[in-house]
Specification:
Blueprint: E1 20-32, E2 36-42, E3 47-53, H1 57-64, E4 71-80, E5 95-106, H2 123-128, H3 130-133, H4 137-159, E6 163-164, E7 181-184, E8 192-195, H5 200-208, E9 213-222, E10 233-243, H6 247-264, E11 269-270, E12 277-279, H7 280-287, E13 301-302, H8 304-307, H9 315-322, E14 325-332, H10 340-352, E15 360-367, E16 370-374, H11 383-392, E17 400-407, H12 408-425, E18 433-434, E19 436-440, E20 445-447, E21 454-456, H13 467-473, E22 483-488, E23 491-498, H14 503-512, H15 517-531, E24 538-541, H16 545-553, H17 583-588
Parallel strand pairs: 3-5, 6-9, 11-18, 12-19
Antiparallel strand pairs: 1-2, 1-4, 2-3, 4-5, 7-8, 9-10, 10-24, 13-14, 14-17, 15-16, 15-17, 19-22, 20-21, 22-23, 23-24
Helix pairs in contact: 4-16, 5-15, 13-14, 14-15
Length: 598
Amino acid sequence: MNKYRSHLCNQLNEDDSGSSVLISGWVHRKRDHGNLLFIDLRDHYGITQCVIDKSNEELLLIAEKLKSETVISISGNVVLRDNETINENLETGKIEVVIENIQILSSANELPMPVFGDQEYPEDIRLKYRFLDIRRNELHKNLILRSEIISLIRKLMTESGFLEMQTPILTASSPEGARDYLVPSRLHPGKFYALPQAPQQFKQLIMAGGFDKYFQIAPCFRDEDARADRSPGEFYQLDMEMSFVEQDDVFSAIEPVMYDVFTKFSNFDVTKLPFPKLTYKDAISKYGTDKPDLRNPIILSDLTNEFLDDEVSFDAFKKIITKGGRVIAIPAPNVKNKPRSFFDNLNNWARKEMGAAGLGYITFINNNGTLEGKGPIAKFIPPRVLELMSKKCDIKDGDAIFFSCSHEKEAYKLASAARDQIGEQLNLIESNTFKFCWIVDFPMYEINEDTNKLDFSHNPFSMPQGGLKALEEKDPLEILGFQYDIVCNGVELSSGAIRNHVPEIMFKAFEIAGYKKEEVMEKFGGMVNAFSYGVPPHGGIAPGIDRIVMLLAGVKNIREVILFPMNQQAQDLMMNAPADISETALNELSLIKNIKED
């Protein structure tokens, strides 16, 4: 026992009855029950109910002045609660402490937000007073869960023969797909370090350095906008790399880690090993996205050709198709008894939330053994074509088909989102399960919509399938990479790849994307140079820690599992960052402010 506590606030039980104890913590709440005053004392571990008899005027005077979240020490005797007052929801619910003395260790001001209770508060308040927010039960538990998950991951990786290593934080800027955070150099005026978007080059250099298996819980920094599953500023990933491996070797290494983590920290069913694989092409055609939620049974179909039939007179779709558009069908099972508002609301959602022209539909009703189409579009489609559509989409009596029609990328984007909406509204999403899958065979290149030029579609350091021959002989848009994503319940946990470790192939791959050899050497010279001295074939992956914890905690916003997150404008409201710096500091860094007024 030290001078603050003999026990933690979750430890006392019936066996301690009659003992004198000393406990410390925060005043969670006070309750006045007439002749008794109760104080619920909370520490990191739990809550103990403490009580003062109002005949003890000296103690009562101290207790009445205690504000919520004041830190105190309480000494007293443990007594058993009456049967009718036992609280089964507390670890200490069968006892209470009769207070003999209270010592105030730190007084609390009036709270800007209470810690007790589950009230929702605006994000700006929660982030400004994050030190209070993380005292709240659910968030506190999320952060404990995060620590336990990371501890298990470290254990599993080490047991699998991976060495934990740390890569630099100050490094050079490189094109990783997002903006860098730049750090000006004092010793080299006019030059800048970059915070790493990922330890990509370094972990490949570790393999070039002769190590076989590396991992770290790596901080990564990207100057990009926030969203529900991505925090601005920084995030953490389980970064790993392996030598002398092919794609399936990486899968075999990471799958058991994901399976063990998700089974240990949830009571849900988890996809059995090995996780299923979907090609990128199949993922898009079946689900409209490369991050499919496999808990949803809805499968998309392409009905472009059916709408091109000469007997179909629905010109609104035909005009879009003739300009390169596609018609993607989203089946909706068993909607026969749904009111018209169900269909109208989905149509309005497509317009307002997705910016689409709408979401047309046809319902199918069995009429003497024949499925007949009903709805605004059905009259433009002959029975023969309706039958083809129903068979292609596996439609039954009472089902419906919704239609997304636009240019291919937009058509699948709307269809994917509609699939999610319909799945949720019809309660089709399988509950209490984590469904994993791999997405493989990503295109090596794509057309950049902003520049209309070829660009890498995934990781620029990936090995193209077919090697140098494919780069030299194939249409770039047909080249696939040894690139892969791991997805769980519609959340992309990680991207990875077998690396391009041959300088000749790397130069050619970058050349196709518009980079000259000189540019490649300028940006990646350290790695390319290392590869000229013998490097093993290698590959890896980097599952996101924040997203793993988010799924296991059952929250929809990633900020609920991050200790001190920024807001959506990438501001730290608690520490007032970013902030102005002094002219002296600017001069040391050879910087001049030149802020353009709006």
